[in-house]
Amino acid sequence: MPPKRKRASGETKDDNLHVSDQTCEAFLDSLSYSQYSAVLIEDGYETLQEIQYITIEDLIRLGVKIGHGRRILAKIQEKVSRFEINSNEPSNSSKSNELEKEPASGAVDDAITIIVNKTFFQIKKTTKMQMLFAAFARRQGVALTSLLFLLDGDRVDGENTPQTLELVDGDEIRCLLAQTGSIGKFGTHEKSVAIEILRANGAHLNLSPRQNEVKVKAICSSLPNAKPNSLFHSYDTEEYLSKAQRETIITNIDAAWETFKNEGLTNNNNDLYFVRQDSTISDFKIILATRQLEKMTKSSETVNNLYSLLYRHKDGEAAKEQNNTAISLVVRRCTQIGHAIKFHTDVSIRTLQVPLNDTFVGGDLVFATNGKICVPQRPAGSATVHGNDIAHGVTTLRSGIRYSLFLLLQQNKTSSC
C-alpha cells in the first residue's frame, strides 16, 4: 500500500484539492480512505484529473464500500470545480438538454464538444483523451483495449488533450475495432506442426498412446506459451444458450454479414455491432456490447451466467482478474471449407466458446494436453473454457456454416489507449 502523504503544519485533510496537481493518493488520504489508493492507481486513476470521472459502479468493482464510494463522489463534486464528461446520443444529430447544460463557473471558455461515432462528449480542453475513450468504452460495454480512435485517419494517443490536438468545438473522432484477442485463423497451414491430425477424418489419426504423447510433446514444444498439462473445461451436458436464443444471434450475424458483403461497413449506423478488422466474406466476425447480447438473448441472466462461467476458473484469481480485465464478445460466421485452424495458444487470458449450431461437418475443437489429443463433445448451446497456455486447433471444416460465440477475457489497462 502506498505510504500516507505527510501534511504540512496547519494543513487540514480537506485543503488543496486541485484538479491540476492533486494525486489520487493524496485525495483519498484527505478522506482517510488511503486503503483504496493502491487498487485505484493500479486501475489507471493516478490523479484527481482522472478520478473525477469515476462512477459508483467503478468504485464498487474495485472493492470500495458503497458508503465510502458515495462519499468519495460527493467530495469530488464539492471540492473540484470540474466540467463533467457528458455523453449522449441525440436524435437527428442534435444535442440534448443535458449536453447543452451550463458548465461549472469559470469553465465556459475551457469547454469543448467532441463527437465519437455520433456520441457527444463535453470535456475540458486540458483533459487527457484517454478519459474520453474510457467513458466511450464504458457506454458501449466494450473493452477499451479493443478500440482504436482515429482523427483524420491517424491514431489518437490517449495522453494527448483537445488542446494539444488543436481540436475545435464539434470535431469528430472515429472509433474502430482493433484486433481483439486471438480466436484462430482458418487456412491450409501446410508446414504447421501436426497439421495432419487436424486434417484427418474423425478429428485425429489412429495413433497409439505413445504416438499421441510424442505428437503432443512436439505441438507444445513448438508453442512458447503452451504447457503440456494445461486443463480445459467442457460443459457438454448444459445448455447455456437455448435454441431460440441461438437462432436470434445467428439471424443477427447473418444480417450483419449481408450488409458487410454488400457495403463493406466497419460498423452499422445504429451502432449495434462492430465488424472485426480481420473479417472476410468467408470468415466473418462481429463484436457485441453486453447490452446487445442481452437484447438478442432477451435475458441478462443468460449473459451473467456466461460471464460467471468464464470468471470462475483458477480458484483464488477470479476476484483479482475482474479488477484488471474486461470481456469482449465476438460472434463468428465461418464458411472456410477445406481449411483448418492450426495448433496455437490464445492471446486472451481465457476463452469461452459456445457453438451456436451443429449443422456443419468438421470444424471440431481439438486440444493437445496431458499426452492426448482431446476432442470434446460440443452440442449446440454448450460451452468450453480454456486458458492461454493450452495448445488447441480446429479440424478442417468440410461443409456447412460454422457459427460460434466467443467470450474473451482480456487485460483492460486504460492508460494504454
Commentary on this structure:
With 417 residues, the chain is of the alpha+beta class. It folds into three domains: 1-82, DNA polymerase, domain 1, CATH 1.10.150; 86-177, Ubiquitin-like (UB roll) (Roll), CATH 3.10.20.90; 186-416, Sandwich (Jelly Rolls). It has 13 helices and 20 strands. The chain has helices at 24-30, 37-42, 48-51, 56-61, 66-79, 97-100, 129-140, 195-199, 209-221, 243-263, 290-297, 300-311, 318-324; strands at 86-88, 111-116, 119-124, 147-151, 154-155, 171-177, 186-187, 232-235, 274-275, 283-288, 325-334, 340-344, 350-355, 361-362, 365-369, 372-374, 383-387, 391-394, 397-399, 402-411. It has a seven-stranded antiparallel β-sheet with strand order 8-17-13-20-11-10-9. The chain has a six-stranded mixed β-sheet with strand order 1-3-2-6-4-5, with helices on one face. Residues 1-20, 80-108, 314-320 and 413-417 have low confidence and may be disordered.
